[in-house]
Amino acid sequence: MDSETVSVFLPNREDCYKRLRRARFGATVACVHCGSGEVIKKGTTGKDAQQYYCNNCETYFNDLTGTLFEHHKFPIEELFYMLKETRSVPTAQIARDLDRDYEAVLNFVHEIQERCNDVADITLSDVCEADEIYVTAGEKDIEQESPRERGLSKRDEEPFNETNRQS
Ligand SMILES: [Zn+2]
User: Fold this and answer.
1) Which of 47, 94, 107, 137 is buried most, with the most CB atoms less than 10 Å from its CB?
2) Contacts of 98 (CB under 8 A, 6+ apart)
């Protein structure tokens, strides 16, 4: 019996949330219920999603509220993995790789397919389109993070060389 070790590369959880937040909220978090910007952070959920409280309509919401990730038991990094892999990998394979229940994975995959047809679902399409779109979508005044270009290279403060420029 050879036990084949399947190593699955899962994205970093916090990165997933960052990406999701960027895709759905942009630079400023607005209340998902009333649209107000009078929102404060209020801890995190059991899934490590940022939770918010809206001072305007006095309700709570979190990063996952209203997204297709909301009602699934899987951690966000696995949902992102499924979202990405389902475009090229059979569902049964994904379930095996993640050691997850096939039916549960299939449910999520079906939901992805349904939502992907819904053009109005900006949240999903932004996340769906992976890094490039999501990055360019946030060109406004995103809270200061290192400037990112395609490929998500993480470079902090690359010194700008101006000596090459002459004019
Ligand atoms: Zn509100």
Assistant:
1) 94
2) 8, 74, 78, 81, 82, 105
